[in-house]
Amino acid sequence: MRRCPALKGAAPIRLGIDIVAVGRIRRLARERAFLDRVFTDVEMERAGTAADRAVCLSRAFAVKEACMKALGTGWADGVGWKEIETTADGPAATCAQLHGRAKELAGGAEPLVSAANTDELAAAMAVLVGRRPQRGAP
What we know:
Elements: E1 13-21, H1 22-28, H2 32-38, H3 41-48, H4 53-71, E2 84-88, E3 94-98, H5 100-106, E4 112-117, E5 121-129
Antiparallel strand pairs: 1-5, 2-3, 4-5
Helix pairs in contact: 1-4, 3-4
Protein backbone atom coordinates (compact mmCIF):
# COMPACT_ATOMS: atom_id res chain seq x y z
CA MET A 1 0.00 0.00 0.00
CA ARG A 2 1.38 3.42 -0.94
CA ARG A 3 1.28 6.16 1.62
CA CYS A 4 0.18 9.67 0.78
CA PRO A 5 3.27 11.94 0.73
CA ALA A 6 1.27 14.79 2.28
CA LEU A 7 0.76 12.67 5.40
CA LYS A 8 4.42 11.74 5.88
CA GLY A 9 5.24 12.16 9.55
CA ALA A 10 1.63 12.88 10.50
CA ALA A 11 0.05 11.22 13.50
CA PRO A 12 -2.19 8.28 12.63
CA ILE A 13 -5.87 9.10 12.32
CA ARG A 14 -8.49 6.62 13.52
CA LEU A 15 -12.04 7.10 12.28
CA GLY A 16 -15.36 5.59 13.28
CA ILE A 17 -18.76 6.16 11.71
CA ASP A 18 -22.19 4.91 12.77
CA ILE A 19 -25.80 5.30 11.67
CA VAL A 20 -28.71 4.17 13.84
CA ALA A 21 -32.46 4.02 13.24
CA VAL A 22 -34.28 6.26 15.72
CA GLY A 23 -37.21 3.82 15.76
CA ARG A 24 -34.91 1.01 16.93
CA ILE A 25 -33.63 3.09 19.85
CA ARG A 26 -37.18 4.25 20.61
CA ARG A 27 -38.22 0.57 20.97
CA LEU A 28 -35.12 -0.41 22.99
CA ALA A 29 -35.55 2.60 25.29
CA ARG A 30 -38.79 1.10 26.60
CA GLU A 31 -36.60 -1.36 28.51
CA ARG A 32 -35.00 0.11 31.64
CA ALA A 33 -32.20 -2.50 31.46
CA PHE A 34 -31.11 -1.16 28.06
CA LEU A 35 -31.05 2.43 29.31
CA ASP A 36 -29.14 1.49 32.47
CA ARG A 37 -26.56 -0.53 30.50
CA VAL A 38 -25.87 2.05 27.76
CA PHE A 39 -26.43 5.60 29.03
CA THR A 40 -24.94 7.58 31.91
CA ASP A 41 -27.08 9.58 34.32
CA VAL A 42 -25.96 12.79 32.57
CA GLU A 43 -27.04 11.43 29.17
CA MET A 44 -30.40 10.30 30.56
CA GLU A 45 -30.97 13.69 32.18
CA ARG A 46 -30.21 15.51 28.92
CA ALA A 47 -32.50 13.17 26.95
CA GLY A 48 -35.28 13.83 29.44
CA THR A 49 -35.24 17.53 28.59
CA ALA A 50 -34.97 17.05 24.81
CA ALA A 51 -37.86 17.74 22.45
CA ASP A 52 -37.66 14.11 21.25
CA ARG A 53 -36.05 11.78 23.79
CA ALA A 54 -35.52 8.97 21.27
CA VAL A 55 -33.67 11.26 18.85
CA CYS A 56 -31.39 12.48 21.65
CA LEU A 57 -30.66 8.92 22.79
CA SER A 58 -30.09 7.82 19.18
CA ARG A 59 -27.49 10.55 18.66
CA ALA A 60 -25.72 9.54 21.87
CA PHE A 61 -25.82 5.86 20.85
CA ALA A 62 -24.37 6.66 17.41
CA VAL A 63 -21.56 8.71 19.01
CA LYS A 64 -20.72 5.83 21.36
CA GLU A 65 -20.64 3.34 18.46
CA ALA A 66 -18.52 5.66 16.31
CA CYS A 67 -16.04 6.12 19.18
CA MET A 68 -15.82 2.35 19.70
CA LYS A 69 -15.06 1.91 16.01
CA ALA A 70 -12.39 4.65 16.13
CA LEU A 71 -10.87 2.89 19.15
CA GLY A 72 -10.83 -0.30 17.10
CA THR A 73 -12.85 -2.27 19.64
CA GLY A 74 -16.48 -2.36 18.69
CA TRP A 75 -18.09 -3.72 21.86
CA ALA A 76 -15.05 -5.87 22.62
CA ASP A 77 -11.77 -5.34 24.45
CA GLY A 78 -13.38 -4.48 27.75
CA VAL A 79 -14.90 -1.13 26.73
CA GLY A 80 -18.27 -0.56 28.38
CA TRP A 81 -20.99 1.65 26.96
CA LYS A 82 -20.78 4.12 29.83
CA GLU A 83 -17.02 4.56 29.34
CA ILE A 84 -17.91 6.76 26.39
CA GLU A 85 -20.06 9.64 27.60
CA THR A 86 -21.68 12.16 25.29
CA THR A 87 -21.80 15.74 26.45
CA ALA A 88 -23.20 18.90 24.93
CA ASP A 89 -21.18 21.96 24.02
CA GLY A 90 -23.99 24.37 23.32
CA PRO A 91 -27.46 23.60 21.99
CA ALA A 92 -26.43 21.57 18.93
CA ALA A 93 -22.79 20.54 19.39
CA THR A 94 -22.01 17.05 20.66
CA CYS A 95 -18.80 16.08 22.44
CA ALA A 96 -17.57 12.82 23.93
CA GLN A 97 -15.49 12.06 27.00
CA LEU A 98 -13.67 8.77 27.43
CA HIS A 99 -13.32 6.97 30.74
CA GLY A 100 -11.71 3.73 31.94
CA ARG A 101 -10.61 1.25 29.28
CA ALA A 102 -11.80 3.52 26.46
CA LYS A 103 -9.52 6.32 27.67
CA GLU A 104 -6.63 3.87 28.01
CA LEU A 105 -7.09 2.59 24.45
CA ALA A 106 -7.25 6.15 23.11
CA GLY A 107 -3.70 6.70 24.34
CA GLY A 108 -4.41 10.21 25.54
CA ALA A 109 -6.27 11.28 22.40
CA GLU A 110 -9.61 13.01 22.91
CA PRO A 111 -12.29 12.11 20.39
CA LEU A 112 -13.52 14.74 17.98
CA VAL A 113 -17.13 13.93 17.19
CA SER A 114 -19.87 15.16 14.93
CA ALA A 115 -23.48 14.00 15.04
CA ALA A 116 -26.56 14.72 12.96
CA ASN A 117 -30.07 13.39 12.74
CA THR A 118 -33.40 13.36 10.98
CA ASP A 119 -36.60 12.10 12.56
CA GLU A 120 -35.70 8.59 11.35
CA LEU A 121 -31.89 8.36 11.54
CA ALA A 122 -29.02 9.52 13.73
CA ALA A 123 -25.44 9.47 12.49
CA ALA A 124 -22.10 10.17 14.11
CA MET A 125 -18.45 10.31 13.22
CA ALA A 126 -15.57 10.11 15.69
CA VAL A 127 -11.93 10.91 14.98
CA LEU A 128 -8.95 10.06 17.18
CA VAL A 129 -5.54 11.44 16.24
CA GLY A 130 -2.48 9.65 17.59
CA ARG A 131 -1.09 6.18 17.97
CA ARG A 132 -3.02 3.46 19.73
CA PRO A 133 -0.99 2.16 22.69
CA GLN A 134 0.52 -1.30 22.39
CA ARG A 135 -1.58 -4.08 23.88
CA GLY A 136 -0.52 -4.77 27.43
CA ALA A 137 1.28 -1.43 27.74
CA PRO A 138 0.60 0.55 30.91
